[in-house]
Amino acid sequence: MDCLSFIAEQRIAQAIEKGELKTTGWENRPLPLDDDHMVPDDLKMAYKVLKNAGYLPPEIETRKEITRLEQLIAQTEDEHQRLQQMRKLSVLMMKVDANRRTPANIAHDDEYFRKVVERTSVRSGDTKK
Question: Which residue range(s) make up the domain with 24?
Fold first, then answer.
């Protein structure tokens, strides 16, 4: 065991004795790993540092925006707003696909979008009395 590992083990043991570190939920179990299998090996550490600092890669931010738009589309009752959000969603999906070597599989819920489009009928010049 090298010096750094020895010091780390001592500090962990001291923290447990003082009650500063609770191990009841994780004792004899591995810690959960981040799902970073899509990140290239040479960028994993940089992404982890950025993630811990509160920053996200642009593709992840775009995916969050896509999820937000999908929820907004599902909840919106106004057909014009729904159509506008669907256009934004389409543009974001094309943006994600354009930035990748292989197309992203984020349009996996085609059945959902088909049903939304079937329910959406925009009437121009239609006024309620």
Answer: 1-29
For residue 20, the SS3 value is: coil
Task: Count the Cβ atoms, other than its own, within 10 Å of residue 118.
Answer: 8
Between CA 82 and CA 79 the distance in angstroms is 5
**Is 18 contained in some domain?**
yes
3-state secondary structure of 127: coil
Cα 39 off chain centre by: 14
Q: Cβ-count burial of 73 within 10 angstroms (0-12 exposed, 13-18 middle, 19+ buried)?
A: buried
Please write the tens of the pLDDT for every residue from 43-86: 888 888 888 888 877 777 888 888 888 888 888 888 888 888 88
**pTM reported for the whole predicted model:** 0.45
Q: Are the C-beta atoms of residues 93 and 105 closer than 8 Å to each other?
A: no
Angle at alpha carbon of residue 111, lines to 110 and 115, rounded to 5°: 115
